[in-house]
Design goal:
This protein has 153 residues and is α/β, with parallel strands linked by helices. The protein has helices spanning 22-37, 41-52, 111-125, 127-135, 139-148; strands at residues 13-17, 58-60, 63-64, 67-70, 77-87, 97-106.
Length: 153
């Protein structure tokens, strides 16, 4: 079991999302989390924007990990989104982003938060995994890949 095993479910996987901007993507993520965790969608957008205002969460190679600490959240929650068309995300390599893994953690989650972010960053730094996530058409298969990433390594 890894730090990502219990974070993803097929209903938190969005493939071919039509977002045309960061704000569109954050709004879509807010709706995913509202359904998944019962958090107000607008509050999710505020938490994500607050973190993004500190600096871009884009890693380069077309991926980003928007994340935030959420007051009142009991356990970490994540969502995967692949955009139909890449968007500008102020990535260090200047490349637009099409793969986003959103992470919400409890306000006080420090070490756990860092471990999850590290696992996600490692997952997204693997070229084969990025290729799979860029082309997969079945949310259940994407979910399985995210949940079990690193188990066979």
């Amino acid at each position: 079991m890894n730090a990502l095993t219990n974070l993803f479910t097929p209903d938190c996987i969005a493939l071919e999302n039509p977002a045309k901007s960061r704000s569109d993507a954050f709004a879509a993520a807010g709706n995913l989390f509202a359904k998944q965790v019962g958090i107000d969608a607008n509050a999710v957008v505020e938490f994500l924007n607050a973190r993004e205002d500190l600096g871009s969460t884009a890693l380069g190679a077309g991926v980003a990990i928007p994340h935030g600490r959420v007051k009142g959240l009991k356990q970490p929650s994540a969502a995967f989104m692949r955009l139909k068309d890449p968007i500008d995300f102020a990535a260090p390599d200047g490349q637009p982003v099409s793969i986003l893994i959103f992470l919400l953690v409890p306000e006080k989650a420090t070490q756990q938060h860092l471990e999850i972010l590290s696992s996600i960053a490692q997952l997204l730094s693997d070229a084969d995994t990025r290729e799979f996530l860029s082309t997969a058409t079945d949310p259940a298969k994407v979910c399985e890949k995210l949940q079990h990433w690193g188990a066979a390594k």
